[in-house]
Each structure stands twice: as structure tokens, then as C-alpha cells.
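Tutorial handout. Part one gives the primary structure; part two gives the three-dimensional structure as C-alpha cells.
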Amino acid sequence: MTVPALAWVCALALIAALLLFDFYFHVRSAHTPSLTEAAVWSAAYVGIAVAFGFGVWILGGTTMGVEYFAGYITEKALSVDNLFVFLIILTTFRVPSAAQQKVLLVGIVFSLVVRTGFIFVGATLINRFAWVFYVFGAALLITAGNMLKPESEDSHSGDTFVLRLARRFLRTTDTYDGDKLVTVVDGRRRLTPMLLAMVAIGGTDVLFALDSIPAIFGLTQNVFLVFTATAFSLLGLRQLFFLLEGLLDRLIYLGFGLAAILAFIGVKLVLHALHENNVPFINHGDPVPVTEISTAASLAVIVVVLLVTVAASLLSPAGRAQTAVANARRHATRYLDLGYEADQALRERTYTEMTAEEDTIAALPRKYTRRIREGETELMALLERAHLVHADRITRMEAGLPLRM
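Part two.
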């Protein structure tokens, strides 16, 4: 179905307005968003995306509506998986909590611009070469298989190809200056690590697009729907990060669910490629009579798989244990390292969050607490050091002595 130019103009205007609103009213003034703020604005952006989808459904018909929602839900789920890497990058660069919003927003905008290019290139290839569906389907099946492999140490490292490339060409200072990109050192203007963090976030998200763009083309070939579903899945991703930051490690089965979804869409693409086949060495270049999977069925499968894997993750004691360990390690590291947060009030809040995670670990079933205490010796030492530093700070404050920095 041909989409009117007016629909494109309205969609682009809405997306641009939301990005400008996000920058001027949320990110321009550096601050750490509260859980309530993150929840309210995450819900608002999801609500806008859903309302847009119903508008597509009403004006474009049932088929377009179902295709939009299938694409949006898939892209949103894949973007949640990206948040794991965002967390690693922000931790690697020791980005102050008040500056993390700007890093995320700039990285997301950069990703949206590049993904738009990928979308139009992909649409051009699909229109000219039917065999591209074979390539997209194979790529998704390979990605799904890779997601099922055990994670290596490198998978938890922020030292990515994009980061190494950025470090090679960008010379930055070792310290931050608020949320500024440029600072003055010894009378000379220098870039701060903020720019590296932005490049790493944006570049990494672009690499994720190599999987997500073929996935959404497996659900709809309408460029308008592919673009808007992708854009709305990225909008609000910053708020979603702060909402889910403490729960990301809890979603221990999400990777299996996403692998199943990508494999399912990969099969769907291959079936479509067979149905439209013109490759000479397959069935003599003639279409293969196969049953194709409808978009409505795809939407149902995607929703069911996500609900099952998220529910299983949230109800799993192993998920609670993994979350508590990861959060305790993160809070202890941030408390001990002033590079994260020099504000003493925020440091105290970080310490309180750390002790809350310790209480969570203590309340876990005995087999998990024993496994953590025996297998996480570095974490135990880190927590002990944080308690010693905190005790020393309290003693010095009560004695009226200056705090050690």
C-alpha cells in the first residue's frame, strides 16, 4: 500500500518534536532521573507509540495495523537486549549518573539516523532482488544460534570494535567536566570522555541494527511501517534504561526468547523467499509452493514468547540472585569510585542501595547465598571495602574532620 506524503510529513514531524522535547526538557539540564520520572515518561512514550499504531490501523487498515504492532513489539524487545550493553558501556566509561541521559540520547539519535539509511538500502535491495530474503533469513538464523551460545568474558566487556576505533582517532581527557563534551586543560581545549561514550553507544546500537532491521523486514516490507516502528522503539529507550537498570540482570531468559523470535522470523523470511523464488539453482528458478506464515500469526507468537520468557525470568530465584549480585557489585563500585559521583548525598544513596541488595542476597534460598559467598570472593571483598570506607566517612564526619577523597 502506498503511504501518502502527508503521512510521512506528520510522522517525521512527530518524531522530531519528541526528540527536541526530550532534549530541552529532560537532558539539557543534567540530572539523575528518579524511578518515578523514568516510569512516567517510559509509559508516555509507549502510549504515544501505541496511539500511533491505532492511527495506522484506523487509517491504513487491519493489515498495516498488525504489521506495525508486530514490528514495534519485536524492535522494542530487541532494544531491551541492547540495554545490557549500554549498561556495560556506561560502567566502562564511568559516566557520572547525571550525564548518562545525554550520552544515551545522543547515541540513540545517531543510531536512528544510521538505521534510517539501512532501512532504505534494505528496501531497495528487496525491491530489486528477491533472493535478499534468503540472506536476511540466514542472517537471523545465525544470530539466533549465536544468542544461545554460552557468554564469554568478552561479552561483558565494554572494549568493543567501535570503542577501539573511536579511541584511536579521538584523544580525550581522563576526567569529566560535568556533562560537557569539551573542556579546557592547561589552557588547551580538549574533548572529554563523554564523546567516546556517545560514539560507543551509537556505534554499538548501529551494529545491533544489522540484526533488527532484517527482523522487521521479515514482518513487513512497507518502508513507512519499518521506519516508524523502528523510530518509536528507540524513542523512550533512554527512560526505559533508567527504569530497568536495576532489573536488567533479572531477565535471564530474555536471550532465549529473543533467539526463538529471531529464528521464527528467519524461517518466515526463508519461506517467503521460496514462495517468491527466482534463484536458478532452487526449483529451476520457479517459485516453490510453500505455506507462508501470516503477520497476525507472527504477532501472536512474538507476544506469547516474550510473555513466557519475561514471566519465567521474573519468577526465577536464579534471576533474583543474579540481579542482586550484579546490582551489589555495581553500587559498591560506584560508591568507591568518585569518578562516578562526587556528590556526597548521591554517594550515600548509592551506599543505601548497595546494602539493600546485600539484604536481598541474605534473604535468598540457602543454596544461592552459599553459592554467592563461595563463588563471588571478589564481590565479598569489594563489599567489605565499601563498608570500611563508609565507616571511616561516618567517623570523620562525626569528628568534624574533612572527608578523604
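Part three, for discussion. The beta strands are 182-185, 188-191. The radius of gyration is 24 Å.
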